[in-house]
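Hey L., structure's done. Input below.
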Amino acid sequence: ELTGYDRSMAYKFHDDDHGEVISEITKPGLEPYLGLHYPATDIPQAARFLFMKNKVRMICDCHAKPVKVYQDEKLGLDLTLCGSTLRAPHSCHLKYMENMGSIASLVMAVVINEGEDEDDNSMVEQQQQQQQQQQQQPKRKRLWGLVVCHNTTPRFVPFPLRYACEFLMQVFAIHVSKEFELENQIREKNILRTQTLLCDMLMRNAPLGIVTQSPNIMDLVKCDGAALLYNNKFWRLGLTPTEAQMHDIVLWLTECHMDSTGLSTDSLYDAGFPGA
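Output:
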């Protein structure tokens, strides 16, 4: 509604650099792109670098004829247009837009800060030590994704509106960064909880304590069931195979994985267990 484009979508980059449309709003009659994944090559690293420099990119009409730019011979350095809004897009990108049925586009970069995953207690304890480092070393930036607007007809967005869109992207990026911080804090607390449980179990005298005392092994590992084989006797918790089935699994592990300190699998069949 703010920009007036026919389609607006949020495009997130994954760890392997491929992109996914995670949110979308369109005018009636347009083909939806929500949930689609695109290869990393669709937006090459050179283009991503430019988005880090110029966070709002507008193409008014992909059919418009590009205008040549001539450099004054007196200039000692080569002229660069990487920060220019009027820079003509690459011909491959124009063809890409045509194939999508798009004539005009407005693309806004979502750039977030990295390295903010300390929890509140750690930040309080290390605040004085890290203050000078934070002042000397700027936080690393990362291109989290793009907000892309498409239009089926030529469209020009004036500078004040583009500036407002850039401000909205900054606010959105802050929210994304905060979500990452919250996830990291939760993960750190879970790691601390796991370490505490593990230390408690290691301090027990009897090996059976991991299944007979509280907290037990199921509090340490997220699972539906657990079993301990000790002195040729099974101790079971939750949902487990029968003792006969567990004997077969133990025999298979002894024969096929004797040199391994452990085995983790999502499928006993895929792991080669004959009784699966």
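The CA atoms of residues 252 and 273 lie 7 Å apart. The radius of gyration is 28 Å.

-- N.
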